[in-house]
């Protein structure tokens, strides 16, 4: 990768690694529902004008069904689950659990990709890594287990939506796709948010965290990610998935004083090894083009 690609890579890694810290700060004074609504509304306000300026919004007319589905499954569901989950678990553990997404995508694509010994070993390692994190970090804590379960369910929804994008919305321009899904999410959440407005004073830190979540971690991160794909290709851009949890853990430990256990390091190492093995391309005597391999670089990954 060239210098510009490395700068974009580092930018996206940081912007996708800090949401879990910012969520933790925001929910001190704001309800998880308001945090999610504010985040997607801010992102939509930024992304819709950009997509309009590019002339890509018209492409959404032919894809209203997929856009609505993705708004619910790739944004509303995961955002709510992750934000409510962080009420009970640390931001660093949240970031590590979400790193299992490539393994879940590989599981969902078993019919399209043959299960070789290497891929099978990768899937097993990744799942063992999750078991280590959950079993040792929140063992005996019912609320902690609930929070971890919510985050893992959110990660599964991310994986489902990623595969769905490949199959149903791969021809939608990326900026239009994300502008559409964030707008749908905003409209869906608005009625609920109206009845959950803050009734007590909200600190400037919580408002600032919410603004950063929508503006930096969603809108700006999306734009940087697509530039990264253009500079380095989708394969290399997808490697940013392995860097995000490191940022999340470092910030959680340094700023929120969250504990760093040996099990955390071991679990993350197993997950990374599992992701790498389970997503390695399979060799074929007569390779054929496939649309399956291009998209696990998640079109909506910046919704993290």
From TrEMBL:
InterPro entries: AA-Vitamin_Transporters, EamA_dom, EmrE-like. Residues 280-293 have a biased composition (Polar residues). The chain crosses the membrane at residues 7-27, 33-52, 64-83, 89-110, 122-139, 145-165, 177-195, 207-226, 238-256, 262-279. It holds the Pfam family EamA. It is found in: Membrane. Residues 7-134, 146-279 form the EamA domain. Its main location: membrane. It is a multi-pass membrane protein. The keyword Membrane applies. Keywords: Membrane, Transmembrane, Transmembrane helix. GO terms for cellular component: membrane. Residues 280-304 are annotated as: Disordered. Belongs to the EamA transporter family. This is Permease of the drug/metabolite transporter (DMT) superfamily. It comes from Asanoa ishikariensis.
